[in-house]
Amino acid sequence: MFPTDTVYGIAADAFSPLAVTMLLASKGRSRKMPPPVLIPRLNALDGLATDVPAEARRLAEAFWPGGLTLILHAQPSLDWDLGETKGTVALRIPADEIAQDLLTLTGPLAVSSANRTGHAAAQTAADAEAQLAESVEVYLEGGPRPAEGAEALASTIVDATVQPLRVVRQGAISLERLRGVVPGLLDVDGKAAEGEDAAETAVEAAVPEADAEAAVEPAAPEADAVPESAPRAAAPEPGSA
What we know:
It is a single chain. By secondary structure, the chain is of the alpha+beta class. It has helices at about 15-25, 45-50, 55-65, 95-105, 125-130, 175-180, 195-205, 210-215, and strands spanning about 1-5, 10-15, 35-40, 50, 70-75, 90, 110-115, 155-160, 165-170. The longest helix is centred in the last third of the chain and has 13 residues, at about 195-205.
């Protein structure tokens, strides 16, 4: 258990199925709610994810380290079992010196907020120990998280396994800031920015009637559809590290 830039997190070796199982058990969670993975640096992205869209890379470069989690297609060759991810992995680099130092020593860690499911996320090591007791082997104290006076916000989660990319949980990074990097990003309701809608309408109007059928094939998924490749269960629970 260690501090992150959001709240305290309970961590396990991402490549140890037993450790991940124990993490989920300590929180009272099932395999249907797989934990995200924290990484120490940007160059770990391609080692854990595949088919990373250019838009996702721009978001990572702009907001990592920080409060942004990206859901991506997991590398199929990796020997790990995070739960029922349906081939996805949620990745983030925390903006916390202690967390980054630990991740540099350990490598990628499966991490979830240090609390029992349904209870408030721990903001100190003492809070975490009161909930998790002996189910956690090591408690690393780093002072209050977030820092005193700061608002406790979970990371914003963006699903980068679909096109256009879509926010599936609003959090520390605002939609406005995200769209400053990726203007076509959909919000949590599957809606594009007003300017993007207008641009799309203009393009559709410019397509000659004779070519209309060809222009709309193949059909795009409905804006509010959630594809199987990006299950909601792969996203961390509210308040997660």
